[in-house]
Amino acid sequence: MDPLYVALKLFELRKYDQVDKITTALLERNPQDEALWTLKMRALTQQVYVDEYEMEYEDVVDQLMDESAMAARPRPGTSLRQPVKTGVGVRPGATARPMSRRTGRPVSGMLRPSSRATTANMRNAMTTGRGLQTSQPLTAKIGRMLRQGTASMLTTPNGPFIVLSRLNLAKYTEKKYLAKPLFEYIFYHDHETALALQMANAAHNLDNRDWWWLSRRGLCHYRLALQREAERDMKEAASQQAHPDNHLYLSKIYARIDLPAQAIESYKAGGVNFPAEPAMLVGAARIFEELDDLANSTLFYRDALKIDAMNFEALACVGMECYYDDQPELALRYYRRLLQMGVHSAEIFINVGMCCFVSQQMDLMWSAFENAFLLCNKEQLADLFYNLGYICACSGELQYAQRCFQLSLTSNNSNPEALAGLAQIAYSEGDRQKAVSLLSVSVTASGKEDASMETLYNMAVCCEELGDHGSAFHYAQMAHTLASGLGAVDKDVKDLLLRLQAAIHSV
Amino acid sequence: MLRAMYDLQLQHMIRPGRAVVGEFTEGEMYLAAANMANKVVISKLPAFSAYASRIVPTKESLQILNINQTITALAVGRFTSDAATDLLFIGTPTELVVYDVPQNREVFRKSTTGGASSIAVGKTGRIKKTLAIVGGESALQGFDEDGNEPLWTITGDNVAVLVLFDVNKDGQVEVIAGCDDHQIRVFRETEQIFSMSETDKIVSLAVLKDQNFVYGLANGTVGVYEQYERRWRVKSKSKPLAVLGFDVTGDGEPEILCGWASGKFEIRDRFSGNLLFKYQMDDPIAQILEVDDPRNHHEKYILVATAEGDVKAFAVEDSTSKEYTVTFLQDGQSHDMLTVDGEGNSKVVPVKPDAEDGESVASVANIPQPLSREDSVYDWSTVPDNVEVYIDVEPNLGNPNYFLNRNLPSGKASALPADMDVYVRKDDGSMDGRIGLPNLFDKPSLKFTIRTSDAAYKIPGVVIFTEGVFSGESYYHHPPERLVTNVVQFPVTIPKNLPVDMFITIMAGQTNRKFYYCHGELIRMKRFAMYYHLSTPGTTTAAPTSPAPPPEGFVAFKVQERINRFFLWASENFFLRGDIKASGDQSGGSLAFVSLRDGEQLVIRMTSAGEITVMTDSIDTAGDVVESLADGLTLKHVESHAHFPKAYDGLLNVFSQLDEFQTNRQRQIADIADRGAGIRAMLMKAEECKTLETWPEVKKYYMELHNQNKSILGDFRVQIEAHQKFTASLKSVSQLIDKAARLRVGTPKSDLFSKCRLAVQSRDVQLLVRLMEFGAS
After folding, report:
1. In chain B, which residues have pLDDT < 70?
2. Nearest to B184, CA basis, from B241, B228, B129
3. Which strand (E) or helix (H) includes residue B41?
4. To probe the interface with B, which of A57, A60, A70 has the most B CB atoms within 10 Å?
5. B735 with B138: CB under 8 angstroms?
6. Which pLDDT does position B652 carry in this prediction?
7. What are the tens digits of pLDDT across the range A322-366?
8. Are B555 and B642 in contact (CB under 8 A)?
């Protein structure tokens, strides 16, 4: 058989390694063969290809030094960067969905690359937020896309396949059949964004009616953090060709420059053109979720599920919403669906276990947790033991609970929740001093700014009972600012504050 | 009278003229102001209260918008009347951004032809939709709600300020644009229907009432126009940064509130320009605004914003009182108010209307009249009846080779016939033992000759006051004492082809006297006074008109007029030599001129068939002539053939430059962005090292940062330079289109604009040249 034919077939079968081998061998014989060249480029690109609209380039530097967003202090509910204050979906009481401590927005059912966590200032960003599990220093997060050439070194041990600096870009840009694969190779494989941009510009100047080049130029601009230019390109591309990608990219750009209303609009506009495309609905649902508009978010996730009943993200998010909406049985169904589809992860089993616990199906609960034990890694183990400890504490088994929390600490010795749980048990045993020291460890473990309101309140109460009114007042105040910052008005905290004030004044 | 309501201390500097008031939440008013750091600061205005107070907004209560480009204009408005809140319109040197403040949403963002240095929101002409009208470098654009552009036209220069109102009482709203080339232009949709010539850049405009509007110039002039006629003007040394028409007295007639760069705040009467009130503030006044607050029962009040960010609010109180009193909160840090009248208010004593401010130098009504006599330092007395004062003005070519010498080093050729009379000062060098004076008339100019009929009435000095001719508006000529006679001659150069009014005051009398007689006169200079008429061919002197090559450029068009009217027009607008009526028979005639400014030739020819040809190399002059002809012969529709190869030649060059610039710019943008990412990462690393206290590393990173920063700044400068070049060439293109359009009258003119624009957009130089040469039809 003609080896080129074989290579093409293998390419169709996504056996990119083999395609690479065959084409490399053939190219050694005839380095001028453009068909082979293109095929090899495509194969190498496909190996490292990612969906750009799921990618997030925003790193800690961009968050701190980015002024691309128009409104620096927008009104609450209109921004992805400001903490949510009075969301539409806020429910009172214990069943409210907890806020993520770092970002001040509701926790989500799925871990996503794009979490627009804005830390207040640079010093904060540097001193906190370094998890124990990742010993990676902060600066390693800088400039993900600056790692040039590493990918190519990986795939081709004998040096890079194409030496871009020696390439006559103008010549290849004019060859239309070569230009696009070459661009993708430069963009995805070599991460030479500036060069890719140069090429996209040249190609656009040759033919300004080609939406593909416009949209690619937008991608280059986006990678270079030139969001406004990217917006212009994508808008133009979307008006020339209603391709789903164009709408998705456009929304992504809007979300990046903190215009959530427009991001949702763009998703909706895409939804009109492509009513059967769940990506638009999921995208809009994500934005709603970050805006704390949980009702709308769930609505969109459910719509996405109607189109695509196998969408992990939608399933997980709807399940989570059901759990916090006091419908654990329903949540159980969504998680079971995930399990049916083959997503077997410790987190899912933990969630299933918790749902079972809340819906009083103790028999099923244990088997779920057992499964979680078999699947979990060290970090998940800490969470798992914490949850077990919680269940024990709820069932009055304080001894077991204590052990569980301690086990949790052995896998993650700075798990603030476990520490707080231990403190609670110590308090109930009457050991105030121990409770205070555990709580203060818990507070430092999570970072002072990121400590949960409950921990701070407990700390204040313990301090008060020990007679340390000064510290108590300090912590109560912190708890109060946190509570009011999240829009909640906690009567207990207020009462405590008043009591402490009176006590201090009387001295 | 005005009473202080509150002082809002924004704690942000305000760019002059860039502050607006809008309803950004239903029922609540906000102030939006551009600060020096390219940000828009939005602050809620306090609710009305009975007691004046000083308010400092907290940092959290201010909304800040990052624009990241210089903010050139701000405006508020809504596209539909049923919208609940106002939109904010932000102009930058490249684009217009329409932003919905409460929703944190950009309605649209459009790049404009020449930036957006002024914005007005409203309806104009017969266009049904509300438009955001944007004035930029030589273009006027109107955008509707969806970002479409139903309005586009060319202006001669950058539009600094815009207002919309019906200026000529025709029931349609016109666009009044104050331009940097000293013109106030009036547009009805895309057509320029009138233009008023002023003496400096227009910095502020505001609508008054009944077709009246007030304007302010960069040279310190403030004045009022009623329709196209100027009512009055006053001049001061400072710059009027803000003007507003607002009824302070409650009599239904708006007064003029004027804020100056010197910090002066004035109220003037709109009919006479009399000063009613003034107050000196600590800082330059950046903007004066009218607020219509729904919380205050729609009772209007005003805001005076200083450049330092101090916003003072005043409400009209006791509108029946005719007194011009303004109550102020005391400036400075103290929260006390001056207690002068025992009520807790500090009263500022009003200025008497007749006590004119020292800075104001002239107040001139547009009715021709001699300067007021009381103000003069001289003992005014009219020259006795038996003594006549003659004023003669004639174009004087001086040295006939003045311009030629520059072009032809040989200097042999003369542009003039041999019989030209050349004036040479008799006194030069002929006086014994005295140093000769430089010849005043060597350079071609207009020669003023002023003479009294009696030799005893010698003229020691002449004062000319006129607009737009002399820097500082007036000119004083006085010959050396030894040369004072009853005749005085001096040269004057008028820079533009515009009819100007000159107020001439002549002193007359004995030189050793303490007092002189004075004589004032108004003369109206002809529009083309600066053209020297060469003797027409075909008359007795058969000398050739000029050995110099005739002009290459010409504009030709046809009119339905008799030749007599053409000559009548010529004699009204030019200084003609001899009796041209004799030469102008019905078979046609020709007039040849040479410019006294630069020696450029101008030949106007008319045949018996009514074909007029204007031959000149300057497209500007041709435009002036066509405009004046159309005016003089009341032409409504002129389509012409315009051939100006020299002007068109530059176009090709400009367009190739544009392409080059665009590719360069794209590369530079990417380059800078690429480096910016590196710099940000570096800064982060440096900060981290600082936290870890590894000082050698910190030093290393900061050194590197410094170098990177330097090189990026260098790149940036290159980019800025290129951008300036780019905008300059774009401007030159649109100015050329404007000039070409001036060679047409009526519909051919507006057609040309729209067709030329398409040609520019498609970068079709050939088409553009063809359009400009042969018109749009």
Report:
1. 1, 48-52, 318-383, 385, 398-442, 511-513, 535-549, 578-587
2. B228
3. strand B39-44
4. A70
5. yes
6. 80
7. 888 888 899 999 999 999 988 888 889 999 999 999 998 888 899
8. yes
The Cα–Cα gap between B179 and B198 comes to: 10
Q: d(Cα A203, Cα A186) in Å, to the nearest integer?
A: 14
**A130-152 residue pLDDT tens:** 444 444 444 444 444 444 444 44
Q: Residue ranges of the domains in chain B?
A: 2-364, 368-397+444-522, 531-635, 645-774
pLDDT score at B545? 43
Query: Taking CA B237 as the corner, what is the angle to CA B233 and CA B239, rounded to the nearest 5 degrees?
Result: 80
Return residues 41-100 of A near B (CB < 8 Å). 60-62, 64-65, 67-75, 78-79
Residues 6 or more apart whose CB falls under 8 angstroms from that of A200 comprise A183, A213, A216, A217, A220
Contacts with A70 from chain B: Cβ below 8 Å: 65-67, 97, 99, 104, 106
Specify the amino acid at residue A255.
Answer: A
Residue A212, CA distances (Å) to A180, A184, B461, B758 in order: 9, 12, 77, 26
Q: Which of A72, A126, A259 is closest, CB to CB, to B64?
A: A72
What does residue B165 show for φ and ψ, rounded to 5 degrees? -170, 170
* A220 interaction partners in chain B (CB closer than 8 Å): 670
Class of domain B2-364: mainly beta
Determine the longest span between alpha carbons in chain B, in angstroms.
99
Report the Cα–Cα distance between both ends of chain A, in Å, rounded: 96
What per-residue confidence (pLDDT) applies to B20? 92
pLDDT surpasses 90 at A6: yes
Q: Which of residues 664-683 of B touch A (CB under 8 A)?
A: 666-667, 669-671, 673-674, 676-678, 680-681, 683
Q: What is the pLDDT of residues A15-65, one digit of tens each?
A: 998 998 898 888 888 888 888 889 988 998 888 887 777 766 566 666 666
pLDDT, residue B433, reads 39
Interface confidence (ipTM) of the complex:
0.75
The answer to whether the beta carbons of residues B458 and B486 sit under 8 Å apart is yes
Using CB atoms, pick whichever of A75, A194, A201 lies closest to residue B104. A75
How does strand B445-452 pair with strand B28-34? unpaired
pLDDT, residue A489, reads: 61
Q: How far is CA B203 from the centre of its chain?
A: 8
Residue with tokens 């996730």: A301
pLDDT confidence of A406, banded at 50, 70, 90? very high
d(CA B80, CA A339): 53
- The edge-to-edge listing of strands for the beta sheet with B39-44 is B19-25, B28-34, B39-44, B63-66
Find all residues with CB under 8 Å of B653, minimum gap 6, and list them: none
Given a cut of 80, is residue A224 above it in pLDDT?
yes
Burial class (CB in 10 A: 0-12, 13-18, 19+), B714: exposed
What does the DSSP assignment read for A319-351? HHHHHHTT-HHHHHHHHHHHHHTT---HHHHHH
- Report whether CATH 3.30.310 matches the domain B531-635: yes
Of B65, B670, B684, Cβ closest to residue A71? B65
- Over residues A443-460, the mean pLDDT reads 79
What's the CATH class of domain B368-397+444-522? mainly beta
Q: Is A284 within 8 Å of A267 (Cβ atoms)?
A: yes
Q: Which residues contact B577 (CB under 8 A, 6 or more apart)?
A: B533, B535
pLDDT at residue A153 greater than cutoff 50: no
Taking CB atoms and an 8 Å limit, are B685 and A139 in contact across chains? yes
**Percentage of residues in chain B having pLDDT higher than 70:** 81
How confident is the model at residue B89, as a pLDDT? 94
Task: Report the pLDDT value the prediction gives residue A121, as an integer from 0 to 100.
Answer: 54
